[in-house]
Automatic annotation (TrEMBL):
Residues 663-757 form the Domain X domain. One of its GO terms (molecular function) is RNA-directed DNA polymerase activity. Residues 265-506 form the Reverse transcriptase domain. It comes from Stephania yunnanensis. This is Nuclear intron maturase 4, mitochondrial. It holds the Pfam family RVT_1.
Length: 887
């Protein structure tokens, strides 16, 4: 409210015509601004906080401007980033602010600059050039009778008729990108003679860089940067890094499983996490522009989506494909090879010293294979993605070299070989010709090789013979084993025409032949016949079951023998049953007892439902024989038509089929595995029927709904490009939504229909089939480009849903803060983390966390309400939780 009242008269004053500013450039303007802002910050420290409540805001604002002036060397760049007019005006404002600070020291009157007000009010007002005004100065002028045309009282009164200006909030990923750009400028200043030098001393061990890294951690944890930060001395950490006296092992957390075969997990505490984050940002600035095109993962615009699109585009003309599964934890050989590779671009012994110390403490957690990457798992270290890409970039380079060798040996046929090849290509082939191929031009004539690598998952597809594929695979595996010191799991070379497909990035990839118009027409007709037949079958079953239920109700009413004997039809089934009545049987129960005996006689348990028992044994025998025969003959002919094509249709298809069939690639979500996971987590029964999830019943209503909606959001976000997305939508409507409703119904002990009415608006996050498509489209349109950038959201975008159970409520005698990094809010509840599965590498994407480390099973964590929701809906991952925060 204070900013709104202050900003309106200033905006009114800004709209008045003003004299043109002096366009003459001020000499040494940048240095003058730096001195003014530095003096202002020095003066602000002497003002007590309780006397000037706006001191922190002014200090933050001035510090931001000082940082911009230090980073930018061009005055136009400073004007562009600050957006507050020309440099001459900034100098005038800075001098005025410094003078106001002096008055605040004497009078302790809070003041704010107009530029700060504009920054708070929103982006559209940052380009307005006006003079700096403060409440203290305006009051002084008003008391002295110095009114500049419009008095302060009139200006404040005029703002009552104006609407408040909405404040545009910058997304957290956009803020993260701005922070990384700021660090990027510091890194590029250290580039000299083709290498980056002194990165540890000049960039990483810089308190500003460490503060930026801490802000990135808070943004990944979805913590507001304006909230209270942790009590961390970045200057002390920077000094310890420069002295090489920072104790890595003392800043780690060790957790292990129980039993003989213990699995140990070493995680960094907050201080070490900040250092790792700073190193990560620096390494990504250095190496990201140099990665190969086949490399995906932890890169802007090159995530899992781009990898799958690349595969669908390239493998349509290939014949064979296979995956390369690596499995190896980083050892001394890998670390030595990694450092020797990094030394080609970075010359900094201090950086390698701190990295080696982290490897010795086993806190880097660099592991090839073992578990799926980019899913926000705690065992995937902060540095492991960028270090893995740096190391496997050697594989990318070797792959390109092998591709050039194999493909160059067969670019053309033998008839036109001499006319098509140049002398350079002839020399190139001669140098790379292998002795094992006597006639390489014949063997490799039409060879094409494609590859896609997402972190440590590699898919290679080859257009050529299987013998060439076997040789190429052997060369790839030999390089990984001998040069990169990897352990390789043997995989088969599969034909792309196989109906089984191949698993990659948690999805199933299949290649199929495109249907021509004639085939589509025939299949469409067959689907129509199949649908018509199934519709008639449903109507038949519904009517026969209806008649059977009426017969059953009539029999239950006619339980007395005297009423049965009065029936006109003595040959009816009811009268026949009445003849079986035993002597002495009670009148009210004889019919029910005989009905049980009759059901045992007809073996009713073998039928799928009670309606089939009535339909087949009661209703259909009583119907006219001509009617039942006609219906079943129709169903038989329809089934024959659907299962096989007629001779006329076969001739039509053979005559219209082209000589060269075009193919397409399908991406399929693992629907059968999704159903198995739903059963494992307690959402459905063995028969596939929805049931309440008992482990969630004790949680709040909002948390239960967020848990189910988080699963739906992940499915729609991950599988919206899959060809079987409609099957996923059916699971959402028939099983996930109903399980959520039944969980709430079991919690409140009321009917499901009442739950749907009571939580209608909350259940909109779990849409029905009709709403699913609209919900997905709206979600995609509202997400910004920064939120979809898988480099900024690495570990968050594909983080799986985890299962938490309520352990206890937090009391005053046993207080607990939120375990999320950077969050200091008190946690109202303590939850227990349940590890439900541990998939082998490579894993399937099912919406749930696929491979949480077993040492975290039954681990208790405190979470605030906001971060419980963030963890459920996928705004944060398990990497944002400090598992060592429990005291």
């Amino acid at each position: 409210m204070f900013l709104r009242r202050l900003g309106q008269p200033l905006l009114t004053k800004a709209s008045e015509p003003k004299a043109a500013l002096n366009q003459n450039a001020v000499p040494n303007a940048r240095e003058l601004l730096i001195n003014l802002y530095t003096n202002t910050l020095h003066q602000i420290k002497s003002i007590p906080q309780h006397k000037a409540p706006h001191r922190d805001a002014v200090e933050t604002f001035t510090r931001h401007r000082l940082k911009v002036c230090e980073e930018e060397r061009d005055c136009q760049a400073i004007e562009s980033r600050l957006g507050c007019g020309r440099v001459e005006k900034l100098i005038e404002e800075a001098r005025y602010e410094l003078r106001l600070i002096g008055e605040m020291i004497g009078a302790f009157a809070p003041s704010l600059t107009l530029s700060l007000v504009f920054d708070c009010l929103g982006e559209p007002f940052k380009q307005v050039q006006v003079e700096t005004v403060s409440t203290y100065e305006a009051a002084r002028k008003c008391n002295a009778g110095e009114t500049d045309g419009v008095s302060l009282a009139k200006s404040l009164a005029s703002m009552l008729d104006e609407d408040p200006v909405p404040v545009e909030r910058i997304s957290r990923m956009k803020l993260k990108r701005l922070i990384e750009i700021r660090v990027k400028k510091r890194v590029k200043e250290q580039h000299n003679s083709g290498k980056f030098q002194d990165l540890m001393e000049k960039v990483i061990a810089n308190p500003e860089t460490l503060r930026d890294a801490y802000d990135c951690i808070r943004l990944n944890s979805n913590v507001d940067l304006a909230s209270k930060p942790d009590d961390i001395s970045f200057e002390y950490i920077a000094e310890m890094l420069l002295r090489r006296s920072f104790d890595i092992k003392a800043n780690t957390i060790t957790m292990s499983t129980k039993g003989e075969n213990k699995e140990v997990l070493v995680l960094p505490n907050l201080n070490l996490r900040i250092i790792q984050e700073a190193i990560r940002i620096v390494l990504e600035v250095v190496y990201r522009p140099h990665f190969s095109k086949i490399s995906h993962g932890c890169r802007s615009g090159r995530g899992s989506r781009s990898a799958l699109r690349h595969i669908c585009k390239k493998i349509q003309t290939t014949d064979w494909w296979f995956t390369v599964n690596m499995k190896k934890k980083a050892d001394a050989n890998i670390v030595s090879k990694l450092f020797s590779t990094m030394e080609e671009r970075i010359e900094d012994p201090s950086l390698y010293f701190i990295l080696q110390s982290m490897f010795d403490a086993e806190v880097v957690n660099l592991e090839f294979g073992g578990f799926p990457k980019a899913e926000g798992l705690s065992q995937e270290g902060v540095l492991s993605p960028i270090l893995m890409n740096i190391y496997l970039d050697l594989f990318d380079q070797e792959f390109h070299r092998l591709c050039m060798m194999y493909e160059a040996l067969g670019s053309g046929d033998n008839a036109n070989l001499e006319a098509r090849k140049s002398s350079l290509r002839h020399w190139f082939r001669k140098q790379l010709k292998d002795s094992r191929n006597n006639d390489p031009y014949y063997e490799y004539s039409s060879l094409r090789i494609y590859a896609c690598r997402f972190m440590d998952e590699i898919l290679i597809s080859i257009s050529g013979s299987k013998d060439v594929s076997v040789v190429f695979k052997s060369d790839i595996q030999s390089y990984l084993i001998n040069s990169l010191h990897m352990d390789i799991e043997e995989t088969e070379i599969l034909s792309t025409d196989s109906s089984h497909g191949i698993q990659f990035l948690g999805t199933l990839i299949q290649k199929r032949i495109k249907e021509n118009p004639a085939v589509r027409a025939v299949h469409k007709l067959k689907r129509k016949v199949q649908f018509f037949a199934s519709q008639k079958q449903d109507n038949w079953d519904a009517m026969t079951s209806r008649i059977g239920k009426k017969w059953l109700a009539h029999g239950l009413k006619k339980v007395k023998e005297s009423e049965i004997k009065q029936l006109a039809d003595s040959n009816s089934i009811l009268c026949q049953i009445s003849q079986l009545r035993k002597v002495g049987m009670e009148t009210d129960h004889w019919y029910k007892a005989l009905l049980k005996i009759w059901m045992q006689d007809v073996n009713a348990k073998a039928e799928n439902s009670e309606f089939e028992v009535l339909s087949k044994n009661i209703v259909e025998p009583a119907l006219p024989r001509e009617l039942t025969d006609a219906f079943y003959n129709f169903q038989k002919h329809a089934e024959e038509y659907v299962s096989s094509e007629t001779n006329t249709t076969s001739v039509l298809l053979m005559s219209s089929t082209p000589t060269k069939q075009s193919t397409t690639t399908d991406l399929l979500a693992p629907v059968s595995l999704l159903q198995k996971r739903l059963h494992r987590y307690g959402l459905i029964s063995l028969g596939g029927y929805p049931r309440p999830t008992s482990i969630l019943i004790l949680q709040d209503n909002d948390e239960i709904i967020d848990w189910f909606s988080g699963l739906v959001r992940r499915w729609l976000r991950w599988y919206h490009e899959c060809d079987n997305i409609n099957e996923v939508k059916l699971l959402i409507m028939n099983q996930v939504r109903m399980s959520c409703i039944r969980t709430l119904a079991a919690k409140h002990r009321i009917y499901e229909a009442e739950i749907e009415k009571q939580f209608e608006s909350d259940l909109s996050g779990i849409p029905s089939t009709q709403e699913t498509e609209l919900e997905m489209v709206n979600g995609m349109s509202e997400s910004s480009v920064f939120e979809d950038d898988e480099a900024l959201t690495y570990g968050i975008f594909h983080s799986g849903l985890c299962l938490l159970s309520l352990e206890r409520m937090v009391s005053t005698s046993r207080p607990c803060n939120c375990f999320v990094l950077g969050c200091l809010v008190a946690a109202p509840c303590v939850y227990t983390l349940h590890v439900m599965e541990r998939q082998k590498f490579p894993g399937w994407k099912t919406g749930f966390s696929s491979a949480v480390h077993p040492s975290l099973h039954k681990r208790r964590i405190g979470l605030c309400k906001q971060h419980v929701k963030d963890l459920y809906v996928g705004h944060i991952s398990l990497q944002s939780i400090d598992f060592g925060a429990w005291k």
